[in-house]
Amino acid sequence: MRTHILGFPSMGRQRELKQALESFWRGDTSAHDLTGTAHKLQEAHWGVQREAGLSYVTTGDFSLYDRMLDTSLMLGAVPARFAACGKDALTRYFALARGDASRNIPAMEMTKWFDTNYHYLVPEIEPDAVWTPGEHPVLEASKRATALGFTPKAAIIGPFTWLALAKGQNGADPWTRLDEVLATYAALLEQLGSLCSCIQIEEPILCTELLPAAAAERFTEAYAGLNAAVARAGSTSLLLATYFGPLTQHLPLAANSGCAALHIDLVRGPNQLDAVVAALPEHTALSLGLVNGRNIWKTDYAQAANFIKRAVSALGADRVLLASSCSLLHSPVDLAEETDLPGHIKNRMAFAVQKCAELADLKAIAQGQGADLLAANAALLAEAQAHADTVVTTVRERAAAVTPAMLARKSPRAARKEAQNWLRLPLLPTTTIGSFPQTDHIRKTRLAFKRGQMSQADYETAIKAEIAGCIKKQQELGLDVLVHGEAERNDMVEYFGQQLGGFCFTRNGWVQSYGSRCVKPPVIYGDVYRKAPMTVEWARYAQSLTQKPVKGMLTGPVTILCWSFVRDDLPRSEVCRQIALAIRDEVTDLEAAGIHIIQIDEAALREGMPLTAAEAAVYLQWAVDAFLLTSTGVEDRTQIHTHMCYSEFNAILPAIARMDADVISIESSRSGMELLDAFTRFHYEGEVGPGVYDIHSPRIPTADEMVHLLRLALKHIDKSQLWVNPDCGLKTRRWEEAYPALENMVAATLRVRVEL
Ligand code: GLN
Ligand code: ZN
């Protein structure tokens, strides 16, 4: 029985790759230094896999920036604007990834990798572009691994996934390039064939509904060609890897691809095993994705052993491989680095290094030598459940007692609008999304307090001074609805996680988000509850300084869930409901403290959406319910806002409408208000604040530009529904940028108001 992982995180235990990349970009180190670090990291990762006793070490999983970009370069699909970037391969590579500021060439677009928090560089297909294939880093890595005595399994992203995720420019259809793409892949496979006995070709697109029908029709013939190329190369074979969902619609294609083995994700698709086994042709091997590549929790060995038993009894042990569900890219590196976690939580955890060892355990168990491992695992998981802060009876009782009435405002939207007239807001009210510039002084204050170098009292005085300064500037600017500015918040999720029961934080649990950027998500390990009010005093103080309404600022339950590592012993919907109840209390406390406009940010609602329509529908049902549970405990006269920083709403407008927020602010300056069209066609009845300028850019927009955008917006939406605000929070901007931009925004609003 063979064992393997689909990939190991590139970053390193101490984020060595991040440091190496950033010092190279600064010009402090050479290309030689960077390559040296990259090689050392790969060798260390192969060492972990060999030490764990896995049958293969994976190559081609490591990338200096992104594997989709590596694939694009292998195919030669380089957009024409980079022609000026010179011949040096590394310079060109990073120009594609990050843009070339000196030549004013924008980077390739980045977007989320399926429903993960990892971002890849989107292939751009230009009409009639001539592609010159380049070398894929997997070749050199596989040679190096072999030379070092490892047994490599090469991992590459498959042609159908690459094409399905590509974007055609100026009307180009990526699929017209299929034959050319397949020819380059065949050449790569022939070269790899002499280096590796197994090649993992990844087609997660088969678990989605994103593969066009015409492309699906060509899959079987295409894979026959790729398998023929592999056969020419010798004794190697292809393992077709699917992940991030069950195989449903495309199961026949995956099962009959002609590849020697098929990998399935049993974490995201636990119910697919029987259907897959039944569909699998004779001799085809099955790789079982048992160890979750996307979380930090130990595998339930009994459950995994049951899957293995079923597969082995149907296929025989020789035809079964044990594997991670997907690449371990999405989990942190090594639990051994965590020295501060409480024992009962750490005992339940497994990071990438530990996940490799789990596969060896599962193999021992499958071979009947692991009774003690099985028992120890069961005892650990049971112990965790018995711990008083994993299951909190009062939280469970309250969550079970949620009634439909708790998911609805007292009155419908129109009546609420009347009731909110007392706020005396002008037409086209101006506001901001919440955060104001996080100055060095603010950061230093928070850090000093965190390190114990500043007393609680001094810290409160310092933050209050920031709030007062922020309110004063907003008054000067003449904004209508003010905010306290979020100076006390490091991050919109961490701030709440640190104050809620059921959360803990790792020291080193970093996960790559894109390029050299990593995130360290909070961990939800137990039942979530609010210990005390979290934002009320800051909001109350801010309101005490002004006659204008101050908008309270909270992060919504779905966003807190999506940006955390979530316990796997409770359905996500249940965890979300617990968070919702905690934030609901904060909402009603804010109202009681005299805060009558409350914004609940749901920046992650859309990205948390599963990949298939059926799963997405289930998700949107409980996700919107959680928002409703959070936001509906208030009187009609209190105005609920939400904010979402993206501009693709078509698929989720019904869900947005069901959220029943009085006001929603969205990103839209870059799309020229086009997205409002969708709101109009949908007859969206709520108030909308389409962002009138892009806060991601340091550029200060002129009043004229914003006048133009507001006039456009008024073509789509009635003046009684329109708000004026930037695209998102201002925390990454400097005051020198934020202040004049808002000055222009208010001036633009005044100019448009007189036209109404
Ligand atoms: N209130 C948050 C802020 O202004 C919202 C951030 C976000 O949506 N990403 O920073
Ligand atoms: Zn935003």
TrEMBL record:
Protein's job: Catalyzes the transfer of a methyl group from 5-methyltetrahydrofolate to homocysteine resulting in methionine formation.
Protein name as annotated: 5-methyltetrahydropteroyltriglutamate--homocysteine methyltransferase
Positions bound to Zn(2+) 1: 643, 645, 667, 728
SUPFAM superfamilies on file: UROD/MetE-like (SSF51726)
Cofactors that this protein relies on: Zn(2+)
GO BP terms, alphabetized: methionine biosynthetic process; methylation
All copies of domain Cobalamin-independent methionine synthase MetE N-terminal, residue ranges: 3-311
InterPro entries: Cbl-indep_Met_Synth_N, Cobalamin-indep_Met_synthase, Met_Synth_C/arc, UROD/MetE-like_sf
